[in-house]
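Lab meeting, item 3. Inverse folding demo.
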């Protein structure tokens, strides 16, 4: 049975590989992939000039999208995207420390997240709607995950048809 699934292009969990357009994702080594909630954008890390750099790419066209505000803040790690990819959360290097930041691609703003003193971010995950972020923090040798509310900082990045408050679908 497993042989039949593998021959049909499916793994044991029924996963199917979705091919990219020819040459769209390039031949570079990539790490730490993150898809936008709508699946249109892919953020991943590539090695450029000896430094880890986030690459944001439209999956359909293969076009690399510019992130000029991040150029001087390398290396990068832990990319995470909101629903449409308006917001990109990641870690950047600030001297000897890591800093969690949000890039608002609509406005071009780079927003540093002020974390409690003495806590160094290790990884993060942005909620698809951009309202919350989970950050793994290193605090005196102990790792912990904390959730932070971003609703006062960012506009929601919602899937089409969802209301900003009250939940449920918007009916015509």
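The presenter then showed the designed sequence:
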């Amino acid at each position: 049975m497993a042989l039949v699934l593998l021959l049909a292009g499916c793994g044991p969990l029924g996963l199917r590989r979705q091919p990219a357009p020819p040459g769209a994702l390039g031949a570079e080594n990539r790490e730490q992939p993150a898809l936008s909630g709508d699946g249109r954008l892919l953020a991943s890390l590539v090695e450029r000039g000896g430094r880890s750099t986030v690459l944001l790419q439209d999956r359909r066209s293969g076009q690399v999208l510019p992130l000029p505000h991040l150029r001087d803040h390398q290396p990068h790690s832990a990319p995470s995207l909101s629903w449409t990819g308006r917001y990109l959360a990641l870690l950047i290097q600030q001297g000897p420390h890591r800093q969690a930041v949000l890039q608002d691609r609509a406005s071009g703003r780079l927003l540093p997240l002020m974390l409690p003193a003495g806590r160094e971010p290790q990884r993060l995950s942005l909620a698809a709607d951009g309202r919350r972020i989970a950050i793994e923090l290193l605090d005196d040798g102990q790792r912990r995950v904390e959730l932070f509310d971003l609703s006062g900082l960012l506009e929601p990045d919602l899937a089409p048809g969802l209301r900003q408050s009250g939940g449920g679908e918007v009916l015509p």
